[in-house]
Design brief:
Blueprint (H helix, E strand, L loop, with lengths): L2 H11 L5 H42 L3 E5 L7 H9 L4 E15 L4 E9 L4 H4 L24 E5 H7 L6 E12 L2 E17 L4 H4 L2 E5 H7 L8 E6 L5 H12 L3 E5 H4 L1 H39 L1 H9 L4 H36 L6 H4 L10 H27 L3 H7 L1
Parallel strand pairs: 3-7, 4-6
Antiparallel strand pairs: 1-8, 1-9, 2-3, 2-5, 2-8, 4-7, 5-6
């Protein structure tokens, strides 16, 4: 064993003459522990929120949306056939998207109304899988003997005061193109609530509703046209390149957006918040680093005579620096390991005991936690690097001590 490590271990185990130095050392370890624990917990919650939102968004929205410049898509069955031939495409379905008012006996609420094909939409929109069945969105018969079905988000149904089996009216303001020009064509149609879905995200559950594609075309006077085509791919992370390939094969006037482009601002905001929280909580580790610096400086003053004797015996400045760097890094390592263990325990408790959150404020029902090994490694590494830099100044000051003066005045 190198004598620097031997002496460093002796300094760690020996009792300090000044109790205040030992107290600062304990506070340094506690500061690093709290900083690492807080960082791990907060970053795990942020990563959990990002993962949760991603799963919710991909459950309600498709991976790729294909639309046509200039408005509605007319020959969509042929386009669907061409899209499904592309490698990496799992399923595709036509859709109509519009804003409407929903009126029930208990209230009125604005909503996003989506007309979908019940036979193919459940393969693309996973949140409706099991809810979206052909009989739930029954097509409106010519003799109007059957009321068409509508599927509502859980929060939207709650706001309207309706349950499965209740009826409501869909009020839409569309435009009608005629030989006499373009004129408003408001319409109101009665629907029966045949299903209620829950995505886990308040924004979707409180705004989205689904009806049959044919019924949407009738309400909006769209004949046999649709807004666009939703596509589900086999590789989510490769959705952008698949979208570009589809547009390249179809050519103009088609264009497409993948799920990351559609939610770019949302995920950018989450990433910015994660980085901001990391920087803020690193300040806790900096405070602990100042304590490490303080304890080492005071130790250098206490061990001044010992340092002088070591230098008189031939110890080089480099060796003296190693002794105090070793002690500071041991303090930092103990705090980092303790903080990592406590952070893991706290994350496990938060994950096991589901903490309820107000969905209308945070957009999720339970506090999400996703502890990733890469985040733990990054946090631990940053803590150790900060602790290392905290040891450099006192170690340098110790190496500059004059052995003659130290022994004479020690």
């Amino acid at each position: 064993m190198a004598f620097e490590l031997f002496i460093g271990r002796r300094y760690l185990r020996s009792k300090q003459k000044q109790v205040f130095i030992s107290l600062i050392t304990i506070l340094s370890i506690a500061g690093v522990t709290v900083g690492v624990m807080a960082l791990i917990t907060v970053i795990a919650v942020m990563a959990g929120a990002e993962s949760y939102f991603k799963s919710c968004i991909l459950g309600v929205e498709s991976h790729v949306v294909l639309m046509q410049h200039g408005g509605r898509l007319a020959d969509y069955p042929g386009v669907l056939a061409d899209i499904e031939k592309n490698e990496g495409v799992e399923a595709a379905t036509p859709f109509i998207n519009t804003q409407v008012m929903l009126r029930s006996s208990f209230g009125v609420s604005g909503a996003v109304l989506r007309g979908v094909d019940p036979f193919s939409a459940s393969k693309v929109i996973k949140v409706l899988d099991g809810n979206l069945l052909p009989d739930q969105l029954g097509k409106d018969k010519a003799e109007n003997s059957i009321t068409p079905g509508i599927i509502l988000g859980k929060e939207l149904a709650k706001n309207l005061g309706v349950m499965k089996g209740d009826e409501l009216h869909v009020i839409s303001l569309s435009v009608l193109i005629s030989p006499f020009g373009i004129k408003p064509a408001p319409s109101m149609k009665r629907f029966k609530v045949t299903g209620i879905f829950e995505s886990g995200m308040y924004e979707y559950d409180g705004n989205f509703s689904y009806i049959h594609l044919d019924d949407a075309q009738k309400i909006l006077h769209m004949d046999s046209t649709v807004t666009g085509i939703e596509i589900r791919v086999t590789d989510v992370e490769n959705a952008k390149s698949i979208a570009e390939k589809i547009v390249g094969n179809l050519g103009s006037p088609f264009w497409a957006r993948d799920w990351m482009q559609m939610n770019h601002n949302f995920f950018s905001a989450l990433e910015l918040e994660k980085k901001a929280m990391f920087i803020i909580l690193v300040l806790i580790e900096l405070v602990a680093a100042f304590n490490i610096t303080s304890s080492l400086i005071m130790m250098v003053m206490e061990k001044k005579r010992d340092i002088g004797i070591l230098k008189a015996m031939g110890a080089k400045n480099k060796s003296i620096r190693k002794i105090f760097i070793f002690k500071g890094m041991v303090i930092g390592s103990i705090g980092t390991v303790l903080g990592g263990c406590m952070g893991y325990v706290l994350c496990s408790l938060l994950e096991n005991y589901k903490i309820k959150m107000p969905g209308d404020v945070y957009n999720f029902i339970n506090l999400p936690v996703n502890l990733q090994l890469s985040d733990v490694f990054m946090i631990g590494s940053s803590a150790l690097i900060i602790c290392f830099f905290a040891t450099l100044y006192p170690a340098h000051q110790a190496s500059k001590i004059d052995p003659v003066e130290a022994i004479r005045n020690g």
